[in-house]
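Help wanted!
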Amino acid sequence: MSYVIDRRLNGKNKSTVNRQRFLRRYREHIKKAVEEAVSRRSITDMEHGEQISIPGRDIDEPVLHHGRGGNQTIVHPGNKEFTAGEHIARPQGGGGSGGGKGKPGNSGEGMDEFVFQITQEEFLEFMFEDLELPNLVKRNLAGMDTFKTVRAGIANEGNPSRINIVRTLRSAHARRIALTGSSRAKLREVKAELERLRREEPDNFGDIKALEAEVERLSARIHRLPFLDTFDLKYNLLVKHPNPSSKAVMFCLMDVSGSMTQATKDIAKRFFILLYLFLKRNYDKIEVVFIRHHTSAREVDEEEFFYSRETGGTIVSSALKLMQEIMAERYPANEWNIYAAQASDGDNWNDDSPICRDILAKQIMPFVQYYTYVEITPREHQALWFEYERIGEQFADAFAQQQLVTAADIYPVFRELFQRRLVT
Amino acid sequence: MTAQEQKRQPLSVGSEWTFELIQTYDREISRIAERYALDTYPNQIEVITAEQMMDAYASVGMPLGYHHWSYGKHFLSTEKSYTRGQMGLAYEIVINSDPCIAYLMEENTMCMQALVIAHACYGHNSFFKGNYLFRTWTDASSIIDYLVFAKQYIMQCEERHGVDAVEELLDSCHALMNYGVDRYKRPYPISAEEERRRQKDREEHLQRQINDLWRTIPRSAGKAHDADEGRFPAEPQENILYFIEKHAPLLEPWQREVVRIVRKIAQYFYPQRQTQVMNEGWATFWHYTLLNDLYDEGLVTDGFMMEFLQSHTSVVYQPGYDSPYYSGINPYALGFAMFRDIRRICEHPDEEDRQWFPDIAGSDWLSTLKFAMGSFKDESFILQFLSPKVIRDLKLFSILDDDQRDDLLVPAIHDETGYRQIREALAAQYNLGNREPNIQIWRVDRRCDRSLTLRHTQYNRKPLGESTEDVLRHLHRLWGFDVHLETVQGDQVVKTHHMPPRSDASEGDYGRMDMAVVHL
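Answered by r_m:
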């Protein structure tokens, strides 16, 4: 006697606990791999997980087993050319028939790298880890888009709380009319005939009886039709629209003068990624403009932005000017939400800094949603920082600046930005 | 032929399965199995998704395993190779329990489901019920309850003592899992209810015993410890985890309970590790026989049969030693060939068979086969039943690999003079006692530094593998004091391992500390 049970519906994701345990145990490895991936990937490419590989040695579960060597006789199948008592050369490279089978050691040797996939959520989780983001923000960045439910007419299916009573009754009525049409036409005829008989031949009891019975039968038939049937039910249809569905442009400005090292640029990249992710959750369409500058500014692609080296001095205003030009040309402020993120090590020609403030205050700040500036340096602030502080005073709710030494310092720049967004 | 074609009324055509069809096939297969008087536990057939299958696979088929990162690791690697199509999933997982639980994967075709039903629900199932190892060492009726108990207990421990503490302990226990079995002594069957009832008593009782053991009131200071104390343990102990559970000085009661859980589960799997060839061979033999009977009765189509034979042949495929796919002897191939050959020897013996197997040649094949299934394990099964014909068919040969010689020797091949040697060598290869290093608890220094000494008796000069140090580190964590491992050949100690690794300075430190303990 056998029982057949369908277990497909329960016990889904039963292994998630074990999986989480595994990720927890090897979080250092995974974090390193994620860090590498972050510097390798484009900042707009945060939509998928990552392949992680961990050296097999670190992940082995040790057991007591025999090692190589000693004296062992092993039986193999498929003999072709050997005869009993024959001596054969030891195969080179350690493998082959001498390697033996069935020893637990083999699995350890065969698996040099343990490779597996983490999901996008897990990837972001690990990436955010050393940014010290509050959980609410993490969810906001990594989680689902927010939706607005919009009425979109009437549907035949739905849940009972959404029944549209007027439409339902109307369609029930229509159905009753449609289905009883012929019966009622007949009933009318029969009634007219009955009327006529009663009036003209009141003695013709036989026919009147028959017609009365017919009337009864037809009315009963009409009444048998259900007042409300399942397919009369109409529901209000609500569809989800991503919210809000507007466009944003993100300007990335970075100093690429000789004083910016690759490590500094990597921190800057994290900063840009964070801003990008934030925008991604809030806007449907995002464009990214990369502007790099030393003494002159240029719009470049991402690869060149992060990975080409320049030497020479620094004139920040050149980048701001270029940004202003691009804004005016391609991104009218009434169509686009404009965000800007600027990263630098704080160096600038001294007499250029007041010019920067001027351009920012007059030509940029009035049009942007938020401007963030990070100075990646452990050194003292220079003129640019103090000029920007004045901007901060002037546009307190749309400007943030922060000094970064490690990646963990990035988040405070966004704190206000997130708070603002989370409230609205 | 045409007459037979017309008679053919298949149970189904096409490859889609439904629950009704599964039941129909199961009924038919069960009817045929009854003809062969296969004695089985009742079957519980569960249809699951590929993900669930990977999950079950990752936790070594335990449907209710406790949580541990290593299962997560197995899951990830299975998932990876499955999603990339590098590996088909195991078609079936079957659990030695009463009722016998078999998993069918929803992706399988009807033909595969029927194959799995025949293989798992009638093949493996009857093996679990009939083989002496399973009968003596496992209790099919209580394993599910016990797993539930173990899972809950470990979850409670995690809540009480933290995930990390439990994980560390489990890591250490897993490292020694293969040394957590009684090889010769029959264990008491485990029953979950009793476990729960006795667990409290045991905690208290155990702790008292341990305190007795470690009572360190020095007798007369002048006497040599070893002489008057006698050895402890009196006999070398093969079950290392058992010894830890009962005698480790520093473990908390809950830790002893966790050690016990791992040990009990190891014991439950021990028969499976000893009967791979027989178990798979038996199940393969029966799915082959049962489905062929279905075909002979006209209950399945030719297409069904082609699909079945295709997967059957790939299951029993044995690549040669020089093939890139070779990874040792395929237990399905060897076991299937042997059971088939036993049947042949019974039904159509030739001169050679009468000479080699005078007892079974010409006997009733079914009862001989059942006897072979019931009373042996891989090692003895091969020693008893590996016939010259199977050796010839598989072209078996042996290789002697001696690290003291420059070349390899072929001591025997599949010929008249070689059959016996091959048979013995192959049987020895399946002897778990040879496959795993023989390591036993040798001595505990109760009077001095409480160190634990293990003794590894070398077999054929085989050295220990490279993870030995790691395992000793785990043992050291469980024992709490120094651990030594001596490798002996005959009476001579040829190599020693120490944990913590021995350097002169640290040795002095440990010595002094423990002296202080003794004098207190």
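OP: Thanks! One thing I noticed: Confidence is low (pLDDT under 50) at residues 93-111 of chain A.
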